[in-house]
Amino acid sequence: MGTSKPHPATVAVHAGRGRRVDAAPLNPPIVAASNFYGGDYAREEGSPAWEPLEEAVGELEGGTAVAFASGMAASTAIVETLPAGATVVGPAAGYAWTRSLLHERAAKGRLVLHEVDTTDTAATLAAGRHADLLWLESPSNPLIEITELDRICEQLREDRVKVAVDSTFATPLLQSPLAMGADFSVHSATKFIGGHSDLMLGLVGARAEADVRELRHVRAQLGATPGSLEAFLALRGLRTLPVRLDVAQHNAMELAHRLSEHPAVSVVHYPGLASDPGHERAARFMSGFGAMLSFELDGTPEDADALCRRVEVFTHAKSLGGVESLIDRRARYAGSSAPDTLLRISVGCEHVSDLWADLSTALTGSSSR
Asked: Where are the alpha helices (DSSP H) in the chain?
C-alpha cells in the first residue's frame, strides 16, 4: 500500500489477511481446533482462529487487540486486571450491563465505585485523578451523549490514570481512543463490526504490552475465548463495515433531521444535529456521527410501546449495529424523573425513504397492515 498510511476503510478491507504468497488463501480460513502439535492449547496460547481478527482490529485501533467471547466478557476482563479495592470512576448513565458489573463488584467489596456525569469534563477530571480506572462510554447508550474524550484522555494520561473507553457506537472507523491517550478501547463486535446480527464477540484494544498480557491471562483464566466461527464472521463483517457504516450514517442524519421537525417528537438525540449538545465535540475528534440515535415522544410510555408495535420496515428488537434498522423503547437512566418515552434507533442500510415512510406512519398512530 506504499509508504503513506492507508485510510481506515482500506485497513478494514486488507488487514489480517496474512502474507501474499502463492497458493495462500485470500481469506483466513476457519480453524476448528482447540489444541495443536507441540503442546499449545487455544484457551491459553491463543488460536489462528481469532488472530487475524485481532490483527486487523489492532491495526485500526493503533494498538494490540484481544478478542473475547462477548462485549461484556471484554469489559469484565478490564475490570479483572485491577487490584482488590481499586477505585473506579464510572458513568452515571450508560450501558446498563457495564454499570451493573461495576455496581456488583463494588457491592462485594471488589472495588470502590464513584459515578460521575462524564459529559461534565471538569467533574470527570476531578474524580478521575483519584481513580485507578476511569470508565468512559462515548457515544453513550441510550442518549448518544458525547464525552470530551480528547481532553480527558490527554489530561489523565499525564496523571497516569488508566482510562477505558467503550467505543462500540463509534466503531474503530469513527473514533480512536488509544490515539487520544486512552489505555483501553472496548468494542462489542456483536454490533457494528459483525454487522449482521449473527454472532457474539468482544474486543479490547490496548496500548501497553503489559496490559495486553494481563488481558490475555484473564481471558484464559475465565475461559472467555471467542469461537472460531464467530471470529471468522466478525472479520468478514469488518470487511464491509466502511460501506455499511457510510450508508447507515447517511440514513441516521436524514432521519434525525426529519424527526426533529415532527410534532410528535419532543427531543432528538443525535450528535450530527447542530443543535445537539455533543455536536461540537463529535465534530472535533470523530470522523463521523454514527448510526445510533434516540428520540423522545411527546406522549406516554404506552404510546412509545405502541409505536414499536406499528413499525413494519424497522424491527422492534434489542441490540444494534446490523444491516437492518431496529427500534426499542429504552429507560433514560436509573433515577431519572422523566417519563420513559425514549426510543432508541439503530439505523441500518435500507433505503432512507422507506425508513422514513415507516417511521412517520407509525408516528401518526396508524398502520398500513
From this structure: 8-14, 42-45, 51-61, 71-80, 96-107, 121-128, 149-158, 171-174, 177-180, 209-222, 228-260, 279-285, 301-310, 352-363
Q: Identify how many contiguous H helices and E strands the chain contains and give both numbers.
A: 14, 12
Q: Which residues pair with residue 166 across a beta bridge? A: 137, 186
So what's the pLDDT on residue 366?
Answer: 44
Catalytic residue among 43, 157, 213, 258, which?
A: 43
- With a CB cutoff of 8 Å and minimum separation 6, the contacts of 16 are 28, 52, 53, 54, 55, 56, 59, 235
Residue 8, preceding bond cis, omega within 30 degrees? no
Residue 191: active-site member = yes
Q: Is 102 exposed, middle or buried (0-12, 13-18, 19+ CB in 10 A)?
A: buried
What pLDDT is recorded for position 292? 98
Mean pLDDT, range 159-184, rounded to an integer:
96
CA 229 to chain centre: 21
Catalytic, 358? Answer no
**Predicted structure pTM score:** 0.94
Q: Is the pLDDT of residue 354 over 90?
A: yes
> Average model confidence (pLDDT) for the chain?
94
Residue-range domain boundaries for the chain: 8-237, 241-363
Q: 241-363 has which CATH code?
A: 3.90.1150.10
The fold of the 8-237 domain, in CATH, is: Aspartate Aminotransferase; domain 2 (3.40.640)
pLDDT value, residue 331 = 81
Exposed, middle or buried by CB within 10 Å (0-12, 13-18, 19+), for 283?
middle
pLDDT recorded at residue 2: 56
Out of 110, 162, 166, 358, the active site residue is 166
Q: Which of 99, 151, 162, 191 is catalytic?
A: 191
